[in-house]
Specification:
Blueprint (H helix, E strand, L loop, with lengths): L4 H12 L3 H5 L7 H15 L8 H18 L1 H12 L4 H16 L7 H12 L10 H9 L7 H8 L6
Helix pairs in contact: 3-4, 4-5, 7-9
Length: 164
């Protein structure tokens, strides 16, 4: 038998990877209902509130929760099974590639910073980049009688004058 580097890497990955089926004590072909039933039983048995101070039970509970999260989600389970078997699930990888190319091919939204600056200047009365005060805004502030009157700010922001 010829041992390749890929084979050794595969063995290493499998030995490091936890077998969630063994953690829960179910078969690989177990249904979601079976997994859920076993999870509830084990989670109750090893729950930290029922085993206060027992670090081993707490660690076991974390493993059980991790196993259940993976095996109860259909996509995660397919991916996990593919990794566990040491093969690549081509349909799963193709789906991931489609998702990534879809997001790459979409044109990014164009953002106009100058428009933001103009809106900022209309609303606050000065340009944030140059820190120059808009003279018209200053004149309107001087004319205001009521310090709580927001009419001028509203008119500046929306770009229209209120009929009097």
């Amino acid at each position: 038998m010829i041992v390749t580097v890929e084979y050794l890497k595969c063995l290493e990955r499998i030995s490091v990877m936890k077998n969630y089926y063994e953690v829960l004590g179910v078969q690989k072909d177990a249904t979601l209902e079976d997994i859920k039933k076993v999870y509830k039983k084990l989670a109750k048995k090893y729950h930290p509130d029922l085993n206060q101070g027992n670090k081993e039970a707490e660690q076991k509970f974390i493993e059980i929760k991790e196993a259940y999260d993976t095996l109860s989600d259909e996509d995660k389970r397919k991916s996990y099974d593919a990794k566990l078997n040491g093969s690549s699930d081509s349909s799963y990888r193709q789906e991931d590639k489609r998702k990534s190319t879809r997001s790459e091919s979409e044109e990014p939204a164009k953002f106009d910073f100058e428009e933001v600056e103009r809106s900022f200047e209309r609303f606050f009365g000065f340009n944030p980049r140059t820190n120059k005060v808009n003279i018209e805004t200053e004149k309107q502030r001087e004319k205001k009688k009521n310090p709580l009157d927001t009419t001028a700010a509203f008119e500046q922001f929306f770009g229209f004058k209120r009929k009097k």
